[in-house]
Amino acid sequence: MQALYDVPAPAKLNLFLHVVGKRADGYHLLQSLFVLIDWADTLHFERRNDGLLQRHDSGDTLPPDDLCLRAARALQAATGCRLGADIHIEKRLPAGAGMGGGSSDAASTLIALNRLWGLGLTRRQLLDIALPLGADVPFFIGGRHAFVEGIGERLTPLDLPREMRFAVIKPEASIATKDIFSSQCLQRSKSVAIVAGFPAHNSSDAKNATGTENGTDSDASETVVETVRLDAEGIAMLAGGFGKESFGRNDLQKPAEAASAEVVQALVLLQEQFGNSRMTGSGSAVFAHVSGKDGIDEQSIANISKVLPSKWSARICRSLTAHPLRGWLED
Ligand SMILES: C[C@](O)(CO)[C@H](O)COP(=O)(O)OP(=O)(O)OC[C@H]1O[C@@H](n2ccc(N)nc2=O)[C@H](O)[C@@H]1O
Ligand SMILES: Nc1ncnc2c1ncn2[C@@H]1O[C@H](COP(=O)(O)OP(=O)(O)OP(=O)(O)O)[C@@H](O)[C@H]1O
C-alpha cells in the first residue's frame, strides 16, 4: 500500500467528568462518559521507504514535534519498522478545547500507519503504545463511545440508545490541561460510580476507581458509592440529554471558569439558548444537549454565531455510531 487519504480523526465530548482520586505520580483518576462526535480533522498518509517522518500542515499551526509525529515514532520504535511517511494534517479541531483533537490525531495516525506499513497490530497492541502519548489516546483507539476510568486507560465501550445532538461553542481562549488539574479550585467528586452487570468491566470496585486499593490516595474516606448499570436505561441516565436531567458534573469546570471569563460567557450563552450547558474535558469548549426539530437548533446556533466575538466558533455536532476507523483493527 502506497498511501491512505482522507483518514478522519473525530473529536470527543465528555458528557460528565468526575475526578475521583489521585495517583502517587500526581495524575488524577477520572470517571467520565466519552462520546465521539462528527467534528473531525482529516489526515493523509504517503509511504516513504527511507524511514523519515515528515509533517505537512494546512489549517492551524501545530507544534513542530506534534502528536502525529510522536505517534508515528512510537509505532516505529515498538515494531522496528523501517518505513516512514509524509503526514498531511487538515486541522479543523480547535486545540486546547477539551475535545481531544491532538489525541485523536495521534490515534488515527497509529491506526493508519499500522495499515499503511502492513504491521498487523491488534487493537490491544495499539492500546499499549497509545497511553504514553496522552491520556485520551486509548479512548480513540478503542473506537467506541465509552465509560472511561483510571487516567484514560480503563475503557468500558458502550452504544448510545440513539443519536445525540449538541450545540458546541469554542471560545477564542485555549486552556492547558495541566493548569486546570493543578488549580486550587479543583474539587474531588464525593461519589464514585460502580458499573454493574457489564461483562467487559472486570474491575467494578470503588477502591480501584479512587486509587485507595493500592494506597495511592489517602483522601477518599468520605466517598459515596453509586451503582450504575450500563444497560440501555443506565446509559441513557449517564448520557443525559434524552429528556432526563444531565448526570453528574464536570469537576474541571469550576477551575476553568476561574481561569477564563470566556468559558463562563460561553456557558451562559448556551444556558440561555438551550436550557443546559456544560464544559467538555479541561475546556475551553462547552456544549449543550439539543433536541429541536426541523433545523431549529441549527438556526439558533447560526443566530448565536452572528453575535459571537471573532475567533469563537459554534456549531451543531452529532454523536457518531462508532469511530469511522473502528473496522481497521482486529480486537
Ligand atoms: C481532561 C481530559 O481531556 C479528559 O478527557 C484528559 O484527561 C486530558 O488528557 P490529555 O490532554 O491527554 O492530558 P495529558 O497531556 O496526558 O496531561 C497533561 C497534564 O495534565 C495533568 N493531568 C492529566 C490527566 C489526568 N488524568 N490527570 C492529570 O493530573 C498532568 O499534570 C499532565 O501532565
Ligand atoms: N496534532 C495535534 N493537534 C492539536 N494539538 C496538538 C497536536 N499535537 C500536539 N498538540 C498540542 O497538544 C496540546 C493540546 O491539544 P489538544 O487539541 O489535544 O487539546 P484539548 O482539546 O484540550 O484535548 P484534551 O481533551 O485531550 O485535553 C496543545 O497545546 C497542542 O499544541
UniProtKB/TrEMBL annotation:
Q: What pathway is this protein a component of?
A: Isoprenoid biosynthesis; isopentenyl diphosphate biosynthesis via DXP pathway; isopentenyl diphosphate from 1-deoxy-D-xylulose 5-phosphate: step 3/6
Q: What is this enzyme's catalytic activity, as reactions?
A: 4-CDP-2-C-methyl-D-erythritol + ATP = 4-CDP-2-C-methyl-D-erythritol 2-phosphate + ADP + H(+)
Q: Give the EC number(s) under which this enzyme is classified.
A: 2.7.1.148
Q: Name one Pfam family in it.
A: GHMP_kinases_N
Transcription as a keyword of this entry, yes or no, is no
Q: Which GO terms describe its molecular function?
A: 4-(cytidine 5'-diphospho)-2-C-methyl-D-erythritol kinase activity
In which residues is ATP bound? Answer: 94-104
Name the SUPFAM superfamilies for this protein. Answer: GHMP Kinase, C-terminal domain, Ribosomal protein S5 domain 2-like
Instruction: Tell me the active site.
Output: 12, 136
- First-level EC class: transferase
The lineage's top-level taxon is Bacteria
Coiled coil segments of this chain: none
The record, for InterPro entries, names:
GHMP_kinase_C_sf, GHMP_kinase_N_dom, IspE, Ribosomal_Su5_D2-typ_SF, Ribsml_uS5_D2-typ_fold_subgr
> Which keywords does the record carry?
ATP-binding, Isoprene biosynthesis, Kinase, Nucleotide-binding, Transferase
Residue span(s) of domain GHMP kinase N-terminal = 67-143
Q: What does this protein do?
A: Catalyzes the phosphorylation of the position 2 hydroxy group of 4-diphosphocytidyl-2C-methyl-D-erythritol.
User: Which NCBIfam families does the UniProt entry name for this protein?
Assistant: ispE
Question: Belongs to which family?
Answer: Belongs to the GHMP kinase family. IspE subfamily.
Q: What is this protein called?
A: 4-diphosphocytidyl-2-C-methyl-D-erythritol kinase
The species is Roseateles aquae
